DNA sequence: TTCGATT
């Protein structure tokens, strides 16, 4: 959660029949910008739905609970919601393979009054770092699956309201969000739109992908969203670098370990190390324009990765140098092969700097890596 | 193939 404001109050539903749940969906991919047909796509085929029934007929007992803490179990979910009233059934949705929680679940009460009470009482409740969302679940149906879109390249000035205005011509929007930088609050230019029905999402892709919103100078990308469980597998991978490292032994790991020790010693003795973020002991917000700094840490660009490179290789290479919060291998949309580069975010400037100094020019397999702080370069002008 | 973004 970006802020700790009164989400609980502002987000409380005033008319619950219109509060529609957001179901997280499976990963699926959409088309790229390279449309083979460049004529205007027909978005108004006669698919006007007879299914206006929507929320009125929906269950008054079944709730969807979103944004649950990662470690919350089904038993804890049942315990929490059982405090309101008798539960008919309760299900925490988990990853099919890893069994990890996907962060949402369903609670079906016996009495509709208890369901309403649970929304009023538990929606917006803070649990650890999360603010849970409790709302009526829509009937399970194929037509509402895979209706979640990921939008990137948005103008930084675009508001959530404007985003909704842009997409609402294609259907009924269930949820929308624009991601913002945690420090500056400025839009990251990416967001989500969940439609009521998949067909609406498909039409929005056809109509808006690679199009410039009114007043924008760059086209946006609109595609189906990934499901949100993969951070978990990344976190699991991050533990790889803690274990004895058989893949990258030798001088490099030793150098990394010695650096960490030096750093600890310096901290213990109060030695101040250089960081562009620190000016006379005062952290300056002017630092947001320093190359590589991404608000949440120091962003590092890694070039010349092999096509089969994956995230674990980045964790293993950078982890020994200090706190790594995120790694990303950039892949080709169609082949899913690495496009030759990736990004690593490190918390501390010093550790990032040493990692760069150590890993730039490092030979990985038959390739020589180029490693530097991320800049704002882009190959398309 | 030289700088993304996944609630």
SSE diagram, text form:
Elements: H1 7-10, E1 62-66, H2 74-82, E2 87-94, E3 101-109, H3 112-122, E4 126-127, E5 130-131, E6 133-136, E7 148-152, H4 160-167, E8 173-180, E9 187-195, H5 198-208, E10 221-224, H6 230-238, H7 251-268, E11 278-279, E12 282-283, E13 298-303, H8 311-318, E14 324-331, E15 338-346, H9 349-359, E16 363-364, E17 367-368, E18 370-373
Helix pairs in contact: 7-9
The structure holds one DNA strand of 7 nucleotides.
Domain RRM: 61-139, 147-227, 298-376
Keywords: Repeat, RNA-binding
Region (Disordered): 27-55
Strand composition percent: 15-25%
* Average pLDDT rating: 76
Helix content: 10-25%
What is the string of helix and strand elements? HEHEEHEEEEHEEHEHHEEEHEEHEEE
The value of Rg in angstroms is: 24 Å
CATH architecture of one domain: 2-Layer Sandwich
Total strands: the figure is: 18
CATH top level of one domain?
Alpha Beta
Q: What structural category arises from helix and sheet content?
A: alpha+beta
List low-pLDDT spans: 1-31, 34-56, 237-249, 264-273, 279-288
Number of helices: 9
CATH H-level homologous superfamily name of one domain? RRM (RNA recognition motif) domain
Could you tell me the CATH topology label of one domain.
Answer: Alpha-Beta Plaits
Strand order of the largest sheet: 2-3-1-6
The N- and C-terminal alpha carbons lie at a distance of: 34 Å
Biggest sheet descriptor: 4 strands, antiparallel
User: Which outline best applies?
Assistant: globular
Keywords: Repeat, RNA-binding
GO molecular function: RNA binding
Family: Belongs to the RRM elav family.
InterPro entries: ELAD_HU_SF (IPR006548), HuB_RRM3 (IPR034914), Hud_Sxl_RNA (IPR002343), Nucleotide-bd_a/b_plait_sf (IPR012677), RBD_domain_sf (IPR035979), RRM_dom (IPR000504)
């Amino acid at each position: 959660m970006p802020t700790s404001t009164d989400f609980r109050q502002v987000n409380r539903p005033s008319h619950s029949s219109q509060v529609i749940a957001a179901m997280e969906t499976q990963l699926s991919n959409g088309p790229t910008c390279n449309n083979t047909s460049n004529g205007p796509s027909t978005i108004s085929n006669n698919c006007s739905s007879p299914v206006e029934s929507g929320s009125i007929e929906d269950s008054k007992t079944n709730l969807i609970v979103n944004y649950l803490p990662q470690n919350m179990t089904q038993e804890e979910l049942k315990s929490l919601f059982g405090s309101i009233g008798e539960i008919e059934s309760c299900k925490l949705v988990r990853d099919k393979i890893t069994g990890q929680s996907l962060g949402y679940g369903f609670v079906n009460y016996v009495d509709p009054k208890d369901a309403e009470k649970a929304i009023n009482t538990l929606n917006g409740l803070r649990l650890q770092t999360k603010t849970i969302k409790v709302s009526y679940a829509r009937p399970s149906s194929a037509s509402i699956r895979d209706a979640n879109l990921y939008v990137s390249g948005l103008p930084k000035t675009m508001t959530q309201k404007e985003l909704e205005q842009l997409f609402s011509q294609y259907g009924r929007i269930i949820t929308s969000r624009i991601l913002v930088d945690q420090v500056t609050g400025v839009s990251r230019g990416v967001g989500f739109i969940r439609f009521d029905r998949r067909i609406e999402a498909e039409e929005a892709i056809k109509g808006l992908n690679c199009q410039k919103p009114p007043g924008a100078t760059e086209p946006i990308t609109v595609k189906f969203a990934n499901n949100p469980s993969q951070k978990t597998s990344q976190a699991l991978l991050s533990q790889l670098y803690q274990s004895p490292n058989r893949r990258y032994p030798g001088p490099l790991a030793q150098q990394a370990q010695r650096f960490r020790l030096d750093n600890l010693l310096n901290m213990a003795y109060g030695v101040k190390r250089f960081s562009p973020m620190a000016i006379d002991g005062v952290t300056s917000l002017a630092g947001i324009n320093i190359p590589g700094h991404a608000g949440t840490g120091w962003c590092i660009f890694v070039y010349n990765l092999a096509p089969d490179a994956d995230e674990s290789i980045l964790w293993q290479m950078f982890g020994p140098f200090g706190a790594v919060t995120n790694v990303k291998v950039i892949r080709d949309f169609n082949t899913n092969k690495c496009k030759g580069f990736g990004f690593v975010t490190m918390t501390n400037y010093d550790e990032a700097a040493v990692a760069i100094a150590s890993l730039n020019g490092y030979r990985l397999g038959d390739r020589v890596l180029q490693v530097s702080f991320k800049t704002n370069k882009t190959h398309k002008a």
